[in-house]
Amino acid sequence: MADPGLEPATRIVVVGDLLADVVVVPDGPLRPGTDTAAAITSSGGGSAANTAAWLAWTGHSTSLVAAVGDDPLGRSVRDDLAVHGVEHLGPVLAEAATGTCVVLVDADGERTLLPDRAANDRLTAEHVGVLLDDAGLPLGGVAWVHLSGYTLLHAGSRGAGQEVVARARAAGVGLSVDAAGAGPLRDLGADAFLELVDGADLLLANADELVALGGEDAVAGRVRGLVTKRGGEGATWSDGHEQVEVLPRPARVVDTTGAGDAFAAGFLGSWVGGAAVADALASGAARAAEAVAHPGGRPPVAHH
């Protein structure tokens, strides 16, 4: 359901990861070496794809650049994107399998990810260049580019992420980057990641990711704005001088998968439409509250 008063749809291109999620919610604590009953569901996943789906759900024309395999699973996740109103630009790779992520959800709704990135690690700078040209960047009315940090954090796709950053800068198009994951950030190193995103308009990170990056002082000066997603404690925006904070929306937590992606979509959708920082943060908090109330990382299709 589109936000009341939302400006007319503006085209946003999201670049990053597209996977199939297998969400596992055990009935109780895992019992190593034997059975633990569980509820298991499958759906489209991937941080970038989730953000694109939530952007489309809030009324924005949204395209996704993400690599999948030319296989039945790839066709399934692309069909799912279409149902959510997202245009998948490609690439579809004959030589790679579609990525899959097993999501373990504990009794508090916290999730642990076990990803096999597969085709996502085959996304290249050449793919990005061709697909962004086809999308009309910078001449086709693209107002904003959002990049999943996973693309930069993994060696196989890093060149593609760097191409996105370079093209957005050259075109003068707004660029946001999601820090994506505290573990991979620590593996790469904060300095290396911040060098890759230097000059971006926005960096979005949760509290753990911000710690992995060395804190606000380390980020200040590298990007124009920092949005920190603090879960049950709300969210903040800072440009290194001014700070704006919003409280979280009350929510019944079922599954936190994709909550940060939904927040990013809510924030960006409002921000690109010209909203004030506080209003954009509130929109992000509203989308996150909706996301945690049901399993999986995508918006409910029935409301699209």
Automatic annotation (TrEMBL):
Superkingdom, taxonomy of origin: Bacteria
Signal peptide coordinates: none
PROSITE patterns, per database record: PFKB_KINASES_1, PFKB_KINASES_2
Gene Ontology terms, MF aspect: kinase activity
Start and end residues of each Carbohydrate kinase PfkB domain: 10-300
Pfam family for this entry, one: PfkB
InterPro entries: Carb_kinase_PfkB-like, Carboh/pur_kinase_PfkB_CS, PfkB_dom, Ribokinase-like
Keyword line: Kinase, Transferase
Family: Belongs to the carbohydrate kinase PfkB family.
Protein name (database record): PfkB family carbohydrate kinase
Source organism of this protein record: Iamia majanohamensis
Lineage: Bacteria, Bacillati, Actinomycetota, Acidimicrobiia, Acidimicrobiales
